[in-house]
Amino acid sequence: MALLIKTDIDRGTAWAEALAANFPELKVYTWPYEGDPAEIDYALVWQPPEGELKHYPNLKAIFSVGAGIDHLASDPDLPQGVPVVRMVEPGLTAGMSEYVVWAAMSHHRFMLDYAAQRREKVWEELLQLPAEARQVGVLGLGVLGRDALEKLKPFGFRLAGWSRSPKTISGVTCFHGIGGFDEFLAGTDILVCLLPLTPETESILNAETFAKLPAGAAVINAGRGGHLVEEDLLEALESGQIGGATLDVFREEPLPEEHPFWEHPRVVITPHIASMTVPESAVRVVVANIQRLEAGEALQHVVDMNRGY
Ligand code: NDP
Ligand code: OXD
Fold first, then answer.
1. pLDDT surpasses 90 at 8
2. Which entry of 107, 146, 224, 227 is annotated as an active-site residue?
3. Within a 10 A sphere around the Cβ of 203, how many other Cβ atoms?
4. pLDDT-derived band at 60, boundaries 50, 70, 90
5. What are the pLDDT digits (tens) for 81-90?
């Protein structure tokens, strides 16, 4: 049984070592692979070149190194009929929740304003609202959205979430579908995007959406760059409709040097690091899934490619 890994070089080595430690019977090759393509049973990949995966005729499953599978869905030559498995692993989930708590808290505690005051050497107290005066609203109530909301609970924020299908989550006001979108937005002071990028969610963070939030709301985008209409955010920041943004993902990554976000005093930028899959914990999940398939059981976390997530 053989698995081909394509991540970046450093992390590829970490993955190969973790796989060897957890599944010695599995032959592990790192990309680029020069051997017989027919030997490869499994691919564990992040952003493979378009058309690459069609060269392996015996693939039983394609594992995404990340939670998002848009890097695979965009390949017009992705082999049909081979299950695509998204990454669900505790390290990735925990990292995202840390990011969301940090970013929500920094908007709640006026960190952009204090950063501006610091640049001007201004010592001025701003009237702090209690957490229960603000609603944090999370777009996407999947693995990451739900965990982030759970981790926000102890702080006392009002919590809301929005998903495609109805949900019941204790302590979270849940909205769903187009019908629930406006009401969800109307109460949300800190908007967090943890959606997958699909044709339905593309550009969801746009002028119309921003206009439905309370004036001065904050936006945190840790989903995908394609969720955000960047010009609309710049205009909403200019008008004050949006008070600040924390952005981890961008239409073009790395963010081009000339991009106005770099210099914007109301925008915090991180380089797509909101969370990262942790090879040591992720390998256990991948190995368990391969063993399940080899034992004739169903794979877990298979993506519905028609739905796009
Ligand atoms: P899941 O598949 O577990 O959850 C997706 C959620 O989005 C579900 O609640 C789903 O609704 C909801 N959703 C999807 N489409 C729609 C729609 N059209 N309208 C309303 N809700 C919708 O994904 P994860 O939580 O694991 O990951 C989410 C995304 O986070 C990834 O796809 C990736 O893009 C991003 N990510 C970013 C990282 C970073 O470092 N910046 C790291 C990891 C992930 P329902 O529950 O009804 O199906
Ligand atoms: C992911 C990511 O999807 O890191 O896991 O963006």
1. no
2. 224
3. 14
4. very high
5. 999 999 999 9
Tell me which residue of 59, 17, 11 sits closest to 38, measured CA to CA.
Answer: 59
Single-letter residue type at 256: P
Please report the atom of ligand 2 found closest to the CA of residue 69.
3
Any ligand 1 atom below 6 A from CB of 201: yes
The number of the ligand nearest the C-alpha atom of 179 reads 1
**Helix, strand or coil, per DSSP, at residue 157:** coil
Q: Are 86 and 301 in contact (CB under 8 A)?
A: yes
Q: Residue-wise over 116-149: b if at least 16 C-beta within 10 A, else e?
A: eeeeeeeeeeeeeeebeebbbbbbbbbbbbbbbb
The verdict on the CB of residue 223 being under 6 Å from ligand 2 is no
The count of other CB atoms within 10 Å of the CB of residue 247 is: 25
pLDDT tens digits for 126-182?
999 999 999 999 999 999 999 999 999 999 999 999 999 999 999 999 999 999 999
Three-state SS for 86-147 is CCCCHHHHHHHHHHHHHHHHHHHCCHHHHHHHHHCCCCCCCCCCCHHHCEEEEECCCHHHHH
Q: Could you say which DSSP state residue 7 is in?
A: S
Cβ 66 under 6 angstroms from ligand 1: yes
Ligand nearest to C-alpha 167: 1
Measured in residues, the chain has a length of 309
224: annotated active-site residue:
yes
Cα 81 to Cα 115: distance, rounded to the nearest angstrom:
51
176 is annotated as an active-site residue = no
Distance from residue 200's CA to the centre of ligand 1 (Å): 12
The pLDDT tens digits of the residues spanning 207-227 come to 999 999 999 999 999 999 999
**Mean local confidence (pLDDT), 281-303:** 97
Residue 305 has pLDDT above 80, yes or no: yes
Q: Does the structure show a pLDDT above 90 at 309? A: yes
> Percentage of the chain with pLDDT > 70?
100
Residue with the smallest CA separation from ligand 2 atom 2 is 66
